[in-house]
Structure formats: C-alpha cells, structure tokens
Amino acid sequence: MSPVLVSRPSLSLHPSQGVSLGDTVTLRCHLPQMAAWVRLYKEGRWIHSHYKYKEQDTADFSFLSTYREHTGTYWCRYRVPWSAVESEKSDPVELVLTGEGTGDSRWLCLLPTGPCPTS
C-alpha cells in the first residue's frame, strides 16, 4: 500500500493589521482538500479543533474579543476523513495586539514576512 500524501495547509489572520485589544480577529486555515478535523495550535500546543461537516476550503477560528493572552505564534494542521494521516503544520502566523498596556507597535505581523514596522 502506498503512503497517503496530504498537502500542507496555510494560515492567515483577518484583519491582517491594526488589531487592538478587544477587537475580533479570525485565524483562517486554508485547506488544499476536504478535511474532517482541523486543529489550531498556539506556541506548539493544540488549543482547538474544528470538525468540517461539509466541503469547504477553510476553517475559521475566531476570538470575538482579543486579550493579551491571545498574543503568540499559531499554526494549523488537518486530518483527512478517510485516513488517520495528518497534514504537515502550516507556516506560523504571529498575532501581535496593540492597545493600552501592551507596549507593542501599532501593527499585526505575519511570519515569515519579516519584522513588525517600528513607526
């Protein structure tokens, strides 16, 4: 039996910049094929799963009101419905929040695009 090849997902943030404490932010895992389970990880630890009931090419994980604890590095992976094979993890996305008491710059940065603007 040949191994099952599972394409790598990608992860993006919406909105992609200017997210302040208390704002809503969505981490969207883009799937190259139908998946049964999509998992979101923060700092290397699994934090949430989303089961796909119908064919969609994305899985959304939203924070309705962001807190300082949401700052960090996220990635996603998925498992296809007919196999126990999991995908590779997506490239990481860094969520940086701005606002009172954060001490951060005014931007939300996506890795691996580079450092945050300092202005």
UniProtKB/TrEMBL annotation:
<protein>
    <recommendedName>
        <fullName>Ig-like domain-containing protein</fullName>
    </recommendedName>
</protein>
<dbReference type="InterPro" id="IPR050412">
    <property type="entry name" value="Ig-like_Receptors_ImmuneReg"/>
</dbReference>
<dbReference type="InterPro" id="IPR007110">
    <property type="entry name" value="Ig-like_dom"/>
</dbReference>
<feature type="domain" description="Ig-like">
    <location>
        <begin position="3"/>
        <end position="94"/>
    </location>
</feature>
<dbReference type="GO" id="GO:0002764">
    <property type="term" value="P:immune response-regulating signaling pathway"/>
</dbReference>
<dbReference type="InterPro" id="IPR036179">
    <property type="entry name" value="Ig-like_dom_sf"/>
</dbReference>
<dbReference type="InterPro" id="IPR013783">
    <property type="entry name" value="Ig-like_fold"/>
</dbReference>
<dbReference type="Pfam" id="PF13895">
    <property type="entry name" value="Ig_2"/>
</dbReference>
<dbReference type="InterPro" id="IPR003599">
    <property type="entry name" value="Ig_sub"/>
</dbReference>
<keyword id="KW-1015">Disulfide bond</keyword>
